[in-house]
Design goal:
There is one protein chain. By secondary structure, this protein is an alpha+beta fold. The chain is built from 4 helices and 13 strands. The strands form 3 sheets. Strands 4-5-12-7-10 form a 5-stranded antiparallel sheet, with no helix packed on it. Strands 9-8-11-6-13 form a 5-stranded antiparallel sheet. The protein has a 3-stranded antiparallel sheet with strand order 1-3-2, with no helix packed on it. Helix 3 packs across helix 4. The longest helix has 20 residues.
Amino acid sequence: MKKGVSFLVTVALVALVSSLASASDPSPLQDTCVAIDEPKDAVFVNGKFCKDPKLTMAEDFFSSGLDKPGNTSNQVRSNVTTVNVDKIKGLNTLGISMVRIDYEPYGQNPPHTHPRATEILTVLEGTLYVGFVTSNTENRLISKVLNKGDVFVFPIGLIHFQFNIGKTNAVAIAALSSQNPGVITIANAVFGSDPPINPDVLTRAFQLDKSVVKYLQSRF
């Protein structure tokens, strides 16, 4: 009887580990799967049609322009230049992407999450205050000030941010563990949803006056 229970526990653990392992981008079963829009003579993998491997070329794995600053003339005074599967078709099935982030003085990449990726960020120029918040019920802030050459990791799915606390522009490069990590900016999602969330819901959730909630919704 004990052996039977032990076997069932082992099977359950293996199943759990397998389910966690498949929670990120699946491993490719071929060398390349360059994404194309034309389905003729193609295979559908990871939401993209794959080009015939014999027709792949260097341009399928190439992009340029990441040396150029992004336009930071916006409310948050930052810009994220994304290099994902939509920019480099050869990233399809490879489970990785990257971004360049430019910040004006006191600009920020506001609190957001990546539902499908862990992020590792390195500062190229400037000084950033960065951090992430752990999940309920602890909700612990883990933060640090980063300088040029410093590296910081934001675990998958957790709310995180970067803020340029310096008096000069800052630049960072980040890699993400998905070809299409997704991004949910918290303020935009909560106060700028389409259609809007009922103000009564947000009034109770944030313990705010309804007029404040409506004002915030008007800002997004």
